[in-house]
Amino acid sequence: MLQRLARWRVRLGYVTALVAVFFAAPTWASWRVGFAVAIVGEALRVWAAGHLEKSREVTQSGPYRFLPHPLYVGSSLLALGAVVASHSVVVGVVTAIYMTVTIGAAVRTEEAFLRQTFGSAYDDYRTSKSTRVVRAFSLERAVRNHEYRAVIGLVLGFSLLALRIVLSL
Fold first, then answer.
1. Closest listed residue to residue 75, CA positions, set 53, 95, 50
2. DSSP code of 62?
3. What pTM value is reported for the model?
4. Whole-angstrom Cα distance, residue 129 to residue 33?
5. Which of 3, 5, 1, 4 is nearest to 99 (CA)?
6. Distance CA 66, CA 43 (A)
7. Domain ranges, residue 72
8. How many distinct structural domains can be found in the chain?
9. What is the pLDDT of residues 25-58, one digit of tens each?
10. Which of 36, 57, 67, 121 makes a 20 to 30 Å CA pair with 30?
11. Letter string b/e over residues 61-74, b meaning 16 or more CB atoms within 10 A of that residue's CB
């Protein structure tokens, strides 16, 4: 069940986004604040994706030095920004449920995979017993990790919220 939820989180995210756009009541003030929060979240995601070598290692550079799951923290900030921008309690509740269920499942599934694949190296990383790896950020790596999809989603989502504002004037 957890693996299924983790795999379906992007598709469920589209459904959540549609609900958000439908129930949103954004103002330009809420949009600006929400967009600023979302940009911080996406910046964290890009930074993390520029260091991540999926399924090849326990990544320990960039934001992984400070956070075990910076992509999910970034996604959570992005979602918080969308909730603030939407200016809707319904959107807040639906998004909170979606994020809690799907990100929770993804974290548990990912940690199980990392422990199975890398054994004690992952546990050493989590307890700060491992030697930190120094690696420079790579935009090519971020693109290879498909982070441009999240950037496109951010632009599209906030464009739709801006359209809601314009059409409500």
1. 95
2. G
3. 0.91
4. 39
5. 5
6. 15
7. 2-168
8. 1
9. 999 999 999 999 999 999 999 999 999 999 899 9
10. 67
11. bbbbeeebbbbbbb
